Amino acid sequence: MWVADNWKDYEVIDTSEGEKLERWGKYLLVRPDPQVIWNTPKHNKGWNKCNAHYHRSAKGGGNWEFFDLPEEWSINYGKLRFNLKPFSFKHTGLFPEQAVNWDWMRDKIHNANRPIKVLNLFAYTGGATLACAEAGAHVTHVDASKGMVAWGKENAALSKLPEDHFRWLVDDCTKFVEREIRRGNHYDGILMDPPSYGRGPKGEIWKIEESVYPFIQLASKLLSDKPLFFLVNSYTTGLQPAVLNYMLSTVIKPKFGGKVEAQEIGLPVSESGLVLPCGASGRWSL
Question: CA neighbours within 13 Å on the CB side: how many for 247?
Fold first, then answer.
């Protein structure tokens, strides 16, 4: 398993009864997590002294209960800074487990010793975008949500990264990739964090099990002659690491050689010393 264990401003303190107790900077949140199927004693006092608690509804969705939490606040990861705020369906605007992939991509970019262009698809609030830019890459950030792209820009400004390192686009990822292919544009690194389910601007339905493999095939056409990496994330339980490995091994490796790796990604849990699984990632690199 690849574990995001370099955080100082974030921590999973404990997990039990379908929930996790987290520290985001100086604030404690309790949020549901479908992976937490165990019932262990809740010894940590933070369970009863949290700043906010997201309660999942039996009908789907849920709601926040706030005790003492600002509307937004910031945390750091190294030199990067991220604005956080509680919003729909338990999220805060950041997936901390992805830091293990940020570190991997930054190392690849640092060691390339040449200008690197990166494409981040389904890019959310830009954690990976900022990490790649901080390493020196020029990053094209694409997400269909105007609000998420604006949030990413805000994070880049907070992190004091040069504006000319970014291209920010509100667009449907599939349509954008198709246009980039027609334009003859190429990228040295491509990463994607596709949703399990979604709808396009014209009602197009995205189901990851049906759509992700054709999309990987499509996006692979944008790789440069000397590509650096291709990364696919999945939070869908049906897409095990071996599935990600198989897709990258049949699409990317035959064209460029290199190696493919895939693992679960996770976060260390302070109370137990164990690791909370948080999805999976597949990586291709030369």
Answer: 27
263 falls within a domain: yes
Domain of 175, CATH number, reads: 3.40.50.150
Q: Read off the pLDDT of each residue in 1-5 and give the average, rounded to a whole number.
A: 98
Does the pLDDT at position 201 exceed 70?
A: no
Does pTM top 0.90 for this prediction? yes
Q: Are residues 139 and 33 in the same domain?
A: no
Number of compact structural domains in the chain: 2
Mean pLDDT calculated for residue range 23-34: 97
**Token code pair at residue 33:** 């997590």
What does the alpha-carbon distance between residue 171 and residue 144 come to, in Å, rounded to a whole number? 5
pLDDT at 239 exceeding the cut of 90: no
Listed in sequence order, the residues at least 6 apart from 128 whose beta carbon sits closer than 8 Å to its beta carbon are 98, 101, 102, 105, 120, 191, 193
In terms of phi and psi (left: phi > 0; alpha: psi -120 to 50; beta: otherwise), the region of 62 is left
Residue ranges making up the domain that contains 17: 2-84
Does 101 share its domain with 72?
no
